Amino acid sequence: MDYTAGLDEALNRLHEEGRYRTFIDIERRKGAFPSAVWRRPDGTEADITVWCGNDYLGMGQHPVVLAAMHEAIDAAGAGSGGTRNISGTTVYHKRLEAELADLHGKESALVFTSAYIANDATLSTLPRLFPGLIIYSDALNHASMIEGVRRNGGAKRIFRHNDVDHLRELLSADNPAAPKLIAFESVYSMDGDFGPISEILDLAEEFGALTYIDEVHAVGMYGPRGAGVCERDGLMHRVDIINGTLAKAYGVMGGYIAASHKMCDAIRSYAPGFIFTTSLPPAVAAGAAASVRHLKTDQERRDKHQTRARILKMRLKGMGLPIIDHGSHIVPVIVGDPVHTKQLSDMLLEDYGIYVQPINFPTVPRGTERLRFTPSPVHGPDEMDRLVRAMDALWSHCALNRAELSA
Q1: CA atoms of 371 and 348, how far apart (whole Å)
Q2: Residue 407 reports pLDDT greater than 50
Q3: What rounded mean pLDDT belongs to the chain?
Q4: 389-395 — which CB contacts under 8 Å span 24+ positions?
Q5: For 140-149, 292-301, 347-356, which range has the lowest pLDDT when averaged over its residues?
Q6: Catalytic status, residue 248
Q7: Which of 180, 248, 313, 342 is catalytic?
Q8: Is the pTM higher than 0.90?
């Protein structure tokens, strides 16, 4: 076996399809987000504006978060020292879980090193807790949810995206006595559409199923205290397990579930992804707790975020660019070709100092390749003007069609 040739073949396929990805060397400036420094491959530097980050609210630069992290690192040092069972549980982890439980109105919360691990570990462990469990998963769920469902060894059913009728068909076809769980999301990040949460919860109650919702693209940004779409719609009390992230709107790192005390205790006790993973550094846990606590009362930041997204979508639509608009904060501009998408991304960075990563297959279906913009409260009018002018010029330069997509 020529292993090197195998690697060459795999990488060449990505190059030929225009899907090969490169890392962009970016250094964020403290207190200046969305400005950053791009370190070019030739060693030179350029000032750029980041338009595709998941630090949706700029909390990764907020003084409250930074102060909490400084205080914790001065008090406890760098690492946590081990897994939560050995030496990695600190007052900072307990405070963070208390903040999260309070945020979602649940008895408990359990913190993981990422929301990916939280999804994977929880969904792969649930069938051990409920033998014979059938998991019904939305077709466009996050990769981490898909992986967790795939690895659990139990039965799974995939329902068409946001198709409540199809979900009902699948539920009706299975043994009424079998334990069931429906896994879905509140905001789907590639198109920016919302899940039919209330309708799914109605079905879950009708068929006696548990519910698991991923709110990673919603926590911090929706609801009167930032608990997500379920809070906005008054539905949190009807959801059994809520998954969220600390690495997007909260600007730090980590993931979690919020649920009943017994559910969190069982996942804590059975999930290998939790048991055998070193816990978050105390400074990270402290910064995340400070961010969660702050955003419970910072409605002005949430309002400004939604306003920026609406303005950007309105201006791009006005130029006839094909955007998808489902009313969320995510702004996808459909290019429809991986080569053109990469070309646009490269020209925006090199010629205009605007950084937005191309989104290609397998993240999105072939033919729907896109640029995904994530405006934040700290993207000001000048940054938006430069982006809109650049997109207008490059869209014409690449001879791309101007035809608005319907939501």
Answers
A1: 11
A2: no
A3: 94
A4: 390/348, 390/351, 390/352, 390/354, 391/316, 391/319, 391/321, 391/333, 391/348, 392/319, 394/344, 394/347, 394/348, 395/319, 395/321
A5: 140-149
A6: yes
A7: 248
A8: yes
